[in-house]
């Protein structure tokens, strides 16, 4: 009887899990396998290769690694990720969360609403607003700075999309850090303050060690999201002169504009591998943090030594 009951429980569990597994297989696993297969062919949108694609193996991968356009796009993507996600959204999100901690009232709600509004608006709407903001002739930014005629999207394209992405994506970091700061013990902060620790020492020795896991999780998520972000295409179209042709834009142009679906699929697989490398680095750091034994704050000890 116990064996029959255990078998019945496993069958019921399998019945509950089966629909989710079918959805994952249909919408994730099979498309991924199909993309890998396409990446090993010369499949195109038109011509003979569209009707009868030939298997080419790793030729598309070798072509990508040999072409300067791929390495150029990868370099731009890493620059975009580091500038807008790692140095932008993460830092600004923490700064806002730190300044708003413990505050109540209209000011906090107003700041949070404005930051969240930039995050929840559709990408096409946000892109239109920024095109109007950065317009050469009648742009709002030129009007505020008194610099009429400055074409920000042409003269400073990468800086423009980095600032755009910081403005648009900071809300997630702000909310995650706000929740993380709520777990920091006020007693430890007060003890460090009374011991003479400065604001920076309190952050370094009390706050950051306590929320290190949240920091790494946030960096992992926003790095992957930014790496795969297509919204900058709506502002610059990858130009001028391919100066903002990050990987999603490069793959889109290759597959649809040039009609090279096989080569575009191979580029997508390479992009997936880069994402996996980024994820593995952060996961390794998270595991190291989990294995590291907790130790008391150093701020109070430094203050006591004084």
Which keywords apply here?
single chain, 306 residues, mainly alpha, MetI-like fold, disordered C terminus
Summarize the structure.
With 306 residues, this protein is mainly alpha-helical. The protein has one domain (72-260, 267-305): MetI-like fold. It has helices at residues 2-39, 48-51, 59-66, 68-100, 106-120, 123-133, 140-145, 152-155, 157-181, 186-194, 199-227, 232-236, 247-257, 261-291, 298-305.
Structure description:
- The chain is mostly helical.
- It has one domain (72-260, 267-305): MetI-like (MetI-like fold, Orthogonal Bundle).
- The chain is built from 15 helices and no strands.
- It has helices at 2-39, 48-51, 59-66, 68-100, 106-120, 123-133, 140-145, 152-155, 157-181, 186-194, 199-227, 232-236, 247-257, 261-291, 298-305.
- Residues 296-306 have low confidence and may be disordered.
Strand content: under 5%
Q: Any idea what the shape is?
A: globular
SSE class: mainly alpha
Assembly type? single chain
Q: Name the CATH architecture.
A: Orthogonal Bundle
Helical segment tally?
15
Query: What would the CATH topology be?
Result: MetI-like fold
Along the chain, the helix and strand elements come as: HHHHHHHHHHHHHHH
Distance between the termini: 71 Å
Assign the CATH class: Mainly Alpha
* CATH homologous superfamily (4th level) name: MetI-like
Subcellular location: Cell membrane
Family: Belongs to the binding-protein-dependent transport system permease family.
Domain ABC transmembrane type-1: 70-282
Organism: Streptomyces johnsoniae
């Amino acid at each position: 009887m116990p064996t029959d009951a255990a078998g019945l429980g496993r069958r019921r569990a399998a019945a509950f899990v089966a629909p989710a597994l079918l959805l994952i297989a249909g919408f994730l696993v099979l498309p991924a396998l199909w993309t890998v297969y396409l990446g090993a062919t010369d499949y195109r949108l038109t011509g003979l290769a569209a009707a009868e694609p030939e298997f080419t193996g790793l030729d598309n991968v070798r072509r990508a690694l040999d072409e300067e356009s791929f390495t150029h796009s990868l370099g731009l993507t890493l620059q975009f990720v580091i500038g807008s996600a790692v140095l932008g959204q993460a830092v600004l999100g923490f700064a806002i969360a730190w300044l708003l901690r413990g505050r109540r009232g209209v000011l906090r709600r107003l700041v949070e609403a404005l930051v969240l509004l930039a995050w929840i608006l559709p990408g096409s709407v946000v892109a239109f607003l920024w095109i109007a903001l950065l317009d050469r002739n009648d742009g709002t930014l030129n009007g505020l700075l008194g610099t009429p005629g400055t074409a920000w999207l042409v003269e400073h394209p990468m800086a423009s999309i980095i600032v755009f992405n910081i403005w648009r994506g900071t809300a997630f970091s702000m909310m995650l850090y706000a929740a993380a700061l709520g777990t920091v013990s006020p007693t430890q902060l007060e003890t460090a303050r009374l011991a003479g620790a400065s604001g920076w020492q309190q952050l370094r020795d009390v706050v950051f060690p306590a929320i290190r896991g949240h920091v790494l999780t946030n960096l992992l998520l926003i790095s992957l999201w930014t790496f795969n972000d297509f919204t900058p295409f709506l502002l610059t179209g990858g130009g001028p002169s391919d100066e903002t042709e990050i990987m999603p834009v490069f793959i889109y142009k290759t597959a649809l504009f040039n009609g090279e679906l096989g080569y575009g699929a191979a580029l997508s697989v390479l992009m997936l591998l880069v994402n996996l490398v980024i994820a593995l680095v952060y996961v390794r750091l998270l595991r190291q943090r989990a294995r590291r034994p907790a130790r008391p704050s150093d701020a109070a000890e430094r203050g006591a030594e004084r």
